[in-house]
Design brief:
Number of domains: 2
Distance between the termini: 62 Å
Number of helices: 10
Shape: globular
Strand content: under 5%
Low-confidence stretches: 111-131
Number of strands: 0
Structural class: mainly alpha
Mean pLDDT: 82
Order of helices and strands: HHHHHHHHHH
Helix content: over 70%
Radius of gyration: 23 Å
């Protein structure tokens, strides 16, 4: 097989992965490895991905699958060295796929509040309009700079939560609500299939409150301070 991840695996990792996959899938090596990669693809594509990132996800899917396969092989080897075997194959594979997916999402995702300006359709026709456009662009640039700085200052757990919570904004209302319910239940370690209406309401309410607190206590003060500093610096330049 010409898969690049196989070429990057150590001889030991590959040997032990062959044993694991052929035992688990009960097929010859090539077919077992094909099934393994297919399962990784399903786990990655099955995430609640914002539609605007979906094409990027598909474009980079092969690289993400390769990354999961490589890391899985290393974990398998490390487990065997520690005298343990992988008991929950799909559980571990799902965990690795989610971790790699979140890494990718953090890398490509825009700040929480999109600064796209769909109203701008061309060059302003007057000097007044041109000056106004320059001011607007400068303001958006300042706001973007502060957003990136403030997001980077958050604890990783809070950043992940906010990105996932607001990453569904462009979904239809029903899908957006369903995605946030799943997030709330996952954070509470409750299976959606087993959650009662009372649990769904309570955990979703808790999630919304936590997001509100993080925005008001972490993001808002940071943004206000940053914007004030950047505007002051901008005025001094002129």
């Amino acid at each position: 097989m010409s898969d690049k991840e196989l070429a990057e695996m150590s001889e030991k990792d590959l040997e032990q992965l062959v044993k694991l996959l052929t035992t688990f899938y009960k097929k010859e090596w090539e077919e077992s490895y094909g099934l393994f990669k297919r399962d990784i693809e399903k786990l990655i594509l099955g995430r609640d991905t914002n539609p605007k990132y979906r094409s990027l996800l598909v474009d980079e899917l092969a690289d993400l699958v390769a990354t999961v396969a490589l890391r899985f092989s290393k974990i398998n080897r490390k487990s065997l060295e520690d005298g343990r075997k992988i008991e929950h194959f799909y559980g571990l594979l799902n965990k690795m796929a989610e971790y790699v997916y979140r890494e990718w999402l953090r890398r490509i995702r825009k700040p929480i509040d999109s600064l796209d300006d769909p109203s701008f359709t061309g060059e302003p026709s007057t000097s007044v309009g041109f000056d106004k456009e320059l001011e607007d662009r400068e303001e958006r640039a300042i706001k973007l700079k502060c957003q990136m700085k403030c997001l980077a200052s958050l604890k990783q757990s809070r950043l992940d939560l906010l990105l996932e919570y607001y990453g569904v904004l462009r979904l239809p209302p029903k899908e957006r609500t369903a995605a946030r319910v799943r997030l709330a239940l996952r954070l509470a370690n409750i299976s959606p299939a087993e959650a009662s209406p009372e649990q769904i309401e309570k955990k979703t309410s808790n999630l919304n409150k936590n997001v509100s607190v993080y925005r008001s206590t972490d993001l808002k003060p940071c943004m206000e301070k940053c914007l004030k500093r950047e505007h002051s610096r901008s005025r001094r330049l002129f």
